[in-house]
Amino acid sequence: MRIGIVSDVHCNHQALAIALERMGPVDELLCAGDAVYQFRFSNEVMRILRERGARYITGNHEEVLLGKWGERARAAPWVRADDLAYMAAQPSRIETRIDGKRLLMVHGSPFEPHNEYIYPNSPAISRLARIDADYVVLGHTHYQMAERVGRVLVVNPGSAGEARDARNAFHLSYAVLDTATGEVVFDDFPDPTRAAVDRSIIPGGPAGHAAGRNEAQPRNINFWTPG
Ligand SMILES: [Mn+2]
Fold it and tell me: Could you tell me which of 120, 116, 36, 125 has the C-alpha nearest to residue 83?
Protein backbone atom coordinates (compact mmCIF):
# COMPACT_ATOMS: atom_id res chain seq x y z
CA MET A 1 0.00 0.00 0.00
CA ARG A 2 1.11 3.53 -0.69
CA ILE A 3 0.85 5.90 2.26
CA GLY A 4 1.02 9.58 1.37
CA ILE A 5 2.38 11.78 4.17
CA VAL A 6 2.17 15.55 4.52
CA SER A 7 2.94 17.73 7.52
CA ASP A 8 3.29 21.34 8.63
CA VAL A 9 1.02 22.76 5.94
CA HIS A 10 0.64 25.97 8.02
CA CYS A 11 -2.42 27.27 6.13
CA ASN A 12 -0.70 26.92 2.73
CA HIS A 13 -3.63 25.30 0.95
CA GLN A 14 -2.20 26.04 -2.49
CA ALA A 15 0.90 24.04 -1.61
CA LEU A 16 -1.14 21.21 -0.11
CA ALA A 17 -3.17 20.96 -3.33
CA ILE A 18 0.05 20.76 -5.37
CA ALA A 19 1.49 18.10 -3.05
CA LEU A 20 -1.61 15.93 -3.41
CA GLU A 21 -1.68 16.43 -7.16
CA ARG A 22 1.97 15.41 -7.51
CA MET A 23 1.52 12.50 -5.10
CA GLY A 24 -1.18 10.86 -7.20
CA PRO A 25 -3.41 8.11 -5.85
CA VAL A 26 -2.53 6.76 -2.40
CA ASP A 27 -4.26 4.20 -0.19
CA GLU A 28 -3.97 6.35 2.93
CA LEU A 29 -3.22 10.01 3.46
CA LEU A 30 -1.56 11.09 6.70
CA CYS A 31 -1.17 14.64 7.99
CA ALA A 32 1.29 14.93 10.88
CA GLY A 33 0.04 18.20 12.37
CA ASP A 34 0.48 21.98 12.15
CA ALA A 35 -2.05 22.37 9.37
CA VAL A 36 -2.74 25.89 10.71
CA TYR A 37 -0.53 28.80 11.66
CA GLN A 38 -0.76 29.95 15.27
CA PHE A 39 -3.72 32.32 15.29
CA ARG A 40 -4.60 31.74 11.66
CA PHE A 41 -7.10 29.05 10.73
CA SER A 42 -7.61 27.69 7.22
CA ASN A 43 -11.01 26.55 6.03
CA GLU A 44 -9.36 25.54 2.75
CA VAL A 45 -6.78 23.22 4.33
CA MET A 46 -9.44 21.55 6.49
CA ARG A 47 -11.69 21.14 3.48
CA ILE A 48 -8.94 19.35 1.54
CA LEU A 49 -8.04 17.05 4.46
CA ARG A 50 -11.71 16.23 5.03
CA GLU A 51 -12.39 15.55 1.38
CA ARG A 52 -9.38 13.27 1.17
CA GLY A 53 -10.31 11.40 4.36
CA ALA A 54 -6.88 12.14 5.82
CA ARG A 55 -5.74 10.72 9.12
CA TYR A 56 -4.80 13.98 10.75
CA ILE A 57 -3.23 14.70 14.13
CA THR A 58 -2.93 18.06 15.84
CA GLY A 59 0.41 19.82 16.33
CA ASN A 60 1.51 22.67 18.53
CA HIS A 61 -0.09 25.22 16.21
CA GLU A 62 -3.51 23.53 16.45
CA GLU A 63 -3.03 23.54 20.23
CA VAL A 64 -2.46 27.30 20.21
CA LEU A 65 -5.50 27.95 18.06
CA LEU A 66 -7.69 25.60 20.09
CA GLY A 67 -6.43 26.94 23.41
CA LYS A 68 -7.37 29.90 25.56
CA TRP A 69 -5.39 32.41 23.53
CA GLY A 70 -6.91 31.26 20.26
CA GLU A 71 -10.41 32.23 21.32
CA ARG A 72 -10.53 35.44 19.30
CA ALA A 73 -9.00 33.84 16.21
CA ARG A 74 -11.54 31.03 16.34
CA ALA A 75 -14.37 33.51 16.55
CA ALA A 76 -13.43 35.31 13.32
CA PRO A 77 -16.51 35.57 11.09
CA TRP A 78 -14.87 33.82 8.16
CA VAL A 79 -13.96 30.70 10.17
CA ARG A 80 -16.36 27.94 9.15
CA ALA A 81 -17.80 26.19 12.18
CA ASP A 82 -17.79 22.73 10.62
CA ASP A 83 -14.15 22.99 9.54
CA LEU A 84 -13.14 24.22 12.99
CA ALA A 85 -15.09 21.40 14.63
CA TYR A 86 -13.32 18.94 12.34
CA MET A 87 -9.92 20.21 13.48
CA ALA A 88 -10.93 20.24 17.14
CA ALA A 89 -12.02 16.61 16.88
CA GLN A 90 -8.60 15.33 15.80
CA PRO A 91 -6.33 13.44 18.19
CA SER A 92 -2.74 14.43 18.99
CA ARG A 93 -1.56 10.88 18.39
CA ILE A 94 -2.64 8.06 16.08
CA GLU A 95 -1.62 4.47 16.53
CA THR A 96 -2.90 2.22 13.81
CA ARG A 97 -2.20 -0.75 11.63
CA ILE A 98 -1.89 -0.26 7.90
CA ASP A 99 -1.35 -3.29 5.67
CA GLY A 100 -0.35 -5.31 8.74
CA LYS A 101 2.28 -2.75 9.76
CA ARG A 102 2.10 -0.84 13.04
CA LEU A 103 2.27 2.88 12.62
CA LEU A 104 2.51 5.61 15.24
CA MET A 105 2.08 9.24 14.22
CA VAL A 106 2.78 12.19 16.52
CA HIS A 107 3.70 15.77 15.63
CA GLY A 108 6.83 16.33 17.73
CA SER A 109 7.90 13.43 19.91
CA PRO A 110 6.09 10.42 21.39
CA PHE A 111 7.90 11.15 24.67
CA GLU A 112 7.13 13.85 27.24
CA PRO A 113 7.01 16.81 26.81
CA HIS A 114 6.09 15.96 23.20
CA ASN A 115 7.30 19.24 21.69
CA GLU A 116 10.89 18.18 21.10
CA TYR A 117 12.32 18.64 17.61
CA ILE A 118 13.71 15.27 16.52
CA TYR A 119 16.33 15.48 13.78
CA PRO A 120 18.37 12.56 12.44
CA ASN A 121 21.30 13.63 14.64
CA SER A 122 19.20 14.24 17.78
CA PRO A 123 20.24 12.12 20.76
CA ALA A 124 16.53 11.48 21.33
CA ILE A 125 16.15 9.58 18.08
CA SER A 126 17.66 6.42 19.56
CA ARG A 127 14.82 6.33 22.09
CA LEU A 128 12.40 5.76 19.22
CA ALA A 129 13.79 2.22 18.94
CA ARG A 130 11.78 1.43 22.08
CA ILE A 131 8.51 2.17 20.31
CA ASP A 132 6.61 -0.95 19.39
CA ALA A 133 5.93 0.02 15.79
CA ASP A 134 7.17 -0.53 12.27
CA TYR A 135 6.80 3.14 11.37
CA VAL A 136 6.94 6.32 13.44
CA VAL A 137 5.70 9.35 11.50
CA LEU A 138 6.76 12.77 12.78
CA GLY A 139 6.40 16.39 11.70
CA HIS A 140 7.39 19.57 13.58
CA THR A 141 10.96 20.03 12.27
CA HIS A 142 10.04 20.83 8.64
CA TYR A 143 13.05 18.64 7.88
CA GLN A 144 12.87 15.49 5.77
CA MET A 145 13.91 12.30 7.49
CA ALA A 146 13.80 8.58 6.84
CA GLU A 147 15.93 6.89 9.46
CA ARG A 148 15.91 3.33 10.64
CA VAL A 149 16.28 3.15 14.40
CA GLY A 150 16.33 -0.46 15.51
CA ARG A 151 13.34 -1.99 13.78
CA VAL A 152 11.48 1.32 13.56
CA LEU A 153 11.50 3.37 10.39
CA VAL A 154 11.17 7.04 11.37
CA VAL A 155 9.67 9.20 8.63
CA ASN A 156 9.26 12.96 8.51
CA PRO A 157 7.93 14.22 5.16
CA GLY A 158 9.28 17.76 5.62
CA SER A 159 6.88 20.67 5.34
CA ALA A 160 4.18 20.96 2.68
CA GLY A 161 3.61 24.61 3.53
CA GLU A 162 6.53 26.44 5.10
CA ALA A 163 10.02 25.50 3.97
CA ARG A 164 12.78 25.70 6.56
CA ASP A 165 15.30 23.23 5.23
CA ALA A 166 18.38 24.57 3.45
CA ARG A 167 19.38 21.04 2.42
CA ASN A 168 16.65 20.98 -0.18
CA ALA A 169 16.95 24.64 -1.11
CA PHE A 170 13.87 25.62 0.93
CA HIS A 171 11.56 23.51 -1.17
CA LEU A 172 8.34 22.14 0.19
CA SER A 173 7.87 18.40 0.23
CA TYR A 174 5.81 15.36 1.02
CA ALA A 175 6.66 11.66 1.30
CA VAL A 176 5.19 8.42 0.07
CA LEU A 177 5.84 5.27 2.08
CA ASP A 178 5.36 1.92 0.36
CA THR A 179 4.43 -0.68 2.97
CA ALA A 180 5.28 -3.57 0.62
CA THR A 181 8.91 -2.55 0.11
CA GLY A 182 9.63 -0.20 3.04
CA GLU A 183 10.68 2.39 0.49
CA VAL A 184 10.23 6.10 1.24
CA VAL A 185 10.13 8.59 -1.63
CA PHE A 186 10.42 12.34 -1.01
CA ASP A 187 9.29 14.84 -3.58
CA ASP A 188 10.40 18.48 -3.41
CA PHE A 189 8.50 21.33 -5.03
CA PRO A 190 8.65 25.12 -4.89
CA ASP A 191 6.28 27.08 -2.66
CA PRO A 192 3.58 28.50 -4.95
CA THR A 193 2.97 31.40 -2.55
CA ARG A 194 6.55 32.67 -2.38
CA ALA A 195 9.09 34.18 -4.72
CA ALA A 196 11.90 31.82 -5.68
CA VAL A 197 14.82 31.60 -3.25
CA ASP A 198 18.07 33.13 -4.49
CA ARG A 199 20.25 30.02 -4.50
CA SER A 200 23.41 32.03 -3.98
CA ILE A 201 22.38 32.63 -0.36
CA ILE A 202 22.10 28.91 0.37
CA PRO A 203 25.00 27.32 2.27
CA GLY A 204 26.97 25.31 -0.26
CA GLY A 205 25.97 27.77 -2.97
CA PRO A 206 24.52 27.04 -6.37
CA ALA A 207 27.05 24.24 -6.81
CA GLY A 208 25.79 22.59 -3.64
CA HIS A 209 23.26 19.97 -2.82
CA ALA A 210 20.31 21.48 -4.64
CA ALA A 211 21.91 22.48 -7.89
CA GLY A 212 21.88 19.17 -9.71
CA ARG A 213 18.40 18.18 -8.72
CA ASN A 214 15.87 17.55 -11.41
CA GLU A 215 12.74 18.90 -9.79
CA ALA A 216 10.46 16.82 -11.96
CA GLN A 217 12.08 13.67 -10.62
CA PRO A 218 11.19 12.58 -7.10
CA ARG A 219 14.17 11.52 -5.07
CA ASN A 220 14.19 7.85 -4.20
CA ILE A 221 15.47 6.83 -0.84
CA ASN A 222 15.30 3.12 -0.28
CA PHE A 223 14.86 1.37 3.02
CA TRP A 224 14.48 -2.34 3.27
CA THR A 225 13.09 -4.16 6.26
CA PRO A 226 15.71 -6.51 7.65
CA GLY A 227 15.14 -10.08 6.44
MN1 LIG B 1 5.36 23.42 12.10
Answer: 36
